[in-house]
Amino acid sequence: MLVVPLVLISLICGVCGIGDIRLLGRIGTKTFIIYMITTALAIATAIGLGVLFGIGKGMNIETEAAFEAASAPPLLDVFSNIIPSNPISAMANGDMLSIIFFAILIGVSILMVGKPAKGLVQSLELINEVILKMVTIIMNLAPYGVFALLTKAMAELGLDLIWSLLGYVAVLVGSLAFHFFVTMMIVLKVSSGLSIKTFLAKMREVQIFAFSTSSSNATIPITLRTVTKRMGVNNSVASFTVPFGATINMDGTAIMQGTATIFIANIYGIDLGVTEYLTVILMSVLASVGTAGVPGVGLIMLSMVFAQVGLPIEGIGLILGVDRILDMLRTAVNVGGDAADGYCGKIRR
Ligand code: ASP
Q1: pLDDT recorded at residue 26
Q2: How far apart are CA 75 and CA 64, in angstroms?
Q3: Is the CB of 291 under 6 A from ligand 1?
Q4: pLDDT at residue number 60
Q5: What count of other Cβ atoms lies within 10 Å of the Cβ of residue 140?
Q6: Annotation: CATH topology of 24-70+142-344
Q7: Is the CB of 331 within 6 Å of ligand 1?
Q8: Could you tell me the CA-to-CA distances from 98 to 62, 102, 331 in Å, in that order?
């Protein structure tokens, strides 16, 4: 309910707040580079640990379910669809990149109109405050929703399946933890100087929300409110980096794709060489850019990676059964990355 209005209005305000179109370009480029580098580091960690522990070697397990691979959107479409032919339908469909594009265009145009548009900017800032207030009201209900979502997810979880896929689950969880607590925190500390303890404490609410909804997009309002109101990041930076990150920055998803590739390759006895590993890193970065911040899409995009390195698509069926819980974990890492990497924009109030 709040994601689209919040992203649209706060991003327009953000662009107006930057005041300088060139600075916007610089923030955009810097954020994009940080997002891509951290995602590549994430997959490298996953591949490294996967190879180290030889997950899936000598295993013989039944395919859990048939996997429908056809629905992965071609990457070219992801880029060409950024410019909406109809912004209202883009908003109705929640096409995040199109909404971001449209909001930046409005913001830039307001900047170009200059002084006469001042009243409009003030009104938009007021609307932004009102929407943030709505987020606060809804957050008061969040604990009940989180409780219900978690209970349902845990009740549906097949513990036997987790057991049979233990190597895959353990390496994936280990890679997620390593990336979040080590790599990401080093990047955060080095580039912003922020205290890691403070960051983790303030992010707790955001990550619990992401964990229980498995959706980076649904978590945008909470992430945005936390980084602006509780961490003091300027709205001009956060209103861009948070929704942009929720759409294209998926470190957790990329880790799953790296681990799954090694696991499935080992199960089918397919040897991957250095070229294939590099292809996996490149494809997983691209696939995570194309993954929408909603539950389960990362697994669909995995077929793109598999196709590129010649792994059987039906292998995805093997890990389908445990993906719900792993999706929760990787989404918590995804939103952690959106906040931490976005924080490295470093422009504070
Ligand atoms: N659920 C993930 C997210 O929203 C995407 C995925 O990996 O499926 O960030």
Answers
A1: 85
A2: 28
A3: yes
A4: 60
A5: 8
A6: Proton glutamate symport protein (1.10.3860)
A7: yes
A8: 41, 6, 22
Which region holds residue 74: left if phi is over 0, alpha if psi is between -120 and 50, else beta? Answer: beta
The residue nearest atom 1 of ligand 1, judged by CA position, is: 295
Break the chain into its structural domains and give their ranges: 24-70+142-344
Which of ligand 1's atoms lies nearest the C-alpha of 250?
A: 9
Sequence-distant (6+) residues with CB within 8 A of 308 are: 279, 280, 283
pLDDT at 346: 52
> Is the beta carbon of 327 within 6 A of some atom in ligand 1?
yes
- pTM score: 0.83
Mean pLDDT by 10 residues, the chain (349 residues): 87 84 83 88 93 80 56 65 91 87 93 92 93 86 82 73 81 96 90 86 93 92 91 86 88 94 90 88 84 84 84 85 89 92 56
Residue in this structure with the two tokens 């929640």, named with its chain if needed: 94
| Among 247, 320, 330, residue to substitute to test ligand 1 (most atoms within 8 Å of Cβ) | 330
The atom number, within ligand 1, closest to the CA of 331 reads: 9
